[in-house]
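Progress against Task 2.4 (sequence-to-structure conversion) is shown through the following example record, which the project officer requested during the mid-term review.
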Amino acid sequence: MKKSIFYFSLFFGWVFASCDSQPHRETITQELELMIKAEKVAEWQGKDVFRYTLDNGTMSVELSNFGGLISKIFVPDQEGNLENIALTFDSIPEFLTKPNPFFGATAGRVANRIAKGKFTLNGQTYTLATNNGENHLHGGVEGFNKKVWDAEPYTNDSILGVKMTYVSPDGEEGYPGTLTSTQWIELTPDNTIRIRFEASTDQPTIVNLTNHTYFNLSGIKGDVLDHEFQFWADYYTPVDEGLIPTGEIKDVSGTPFDFREPKKLGDQIAANGGGFDHNMILKQEPSDEMIHSVRVKNPASGRVMDMYSDNMGVQFYTGNFIENFAGADGKTYQKHWGFCLESQNWPDAINHENFPSPILNPGEKYEHRIEYRFSVED
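Structure tokens generated for the chain above:
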């Protein structure tokens, strides 16, 4: 399949495609340029793998239908310099063959950990693939991060996006039911990345989808210990040595988990003794309300990222297990060179009666929304 480059005019509402050329950037209407570029880069398990570039004229995002991933995010700093702020590889084909810690990927069918890879649903016990010691992590050995999603780029007024769908068959990685998952990843004119998930099933099952991008607002010039974090979270879920929640819901007051006022990450990591890989509680009752979940600022670059979500929690991970990892642009990623904000249900929720239920039944719809809003401050 040839390269396809899609340009969209908002004012006139027309679309045209060029298949064999690589046009230079140009203004489309009223000083607003929007671009989606779709380029086939590989084949995997008999399916075409594409790289998609969404460009609003100020920032750009690279996506792929392999793993439903966000591979690169180019955001200006306070001087207007565009730099990639996502830990990644140089090319999409590298994601197919290299081991990687879920860089930018869609995690599912159930993100995060399930203790000992087991759960009971409607009286039946299910055994899942274990890929994190004795536990199940982010969907298993071949979770959604290793699947080629059916994808279609689109424009909706001023919004650029790619719709991706994956059908997970009954029994995949041990999960019951055929699950149809769809996500829309969008870039808006005001520098917001929006992700919307939906899923449906033909049998009772469990679902918890999220995106697993590693961010570094400095432009990946070193670790993220100088980043300032603020969480709108009064509670968190403590974990055991295997990073499985104990079932306790703990107040952040007087702990290193208290980010209710902006805190420098390095100070909090020092107080916590090594890093964070914990669920920060955003809600204790389900609702579809989008709430301001997290604010992160890198003082050196002036870049700010505000995260909004309608989910129950966010897994805060500070790259504790990355060491001497060969990434993009000749850089070797080290411990704490990136952070993840994984909007999701609480980890191992199916095994804790006091946690929000991850169960999805036939006739119901799983829905989940995330927004990453980018700006700069002096």
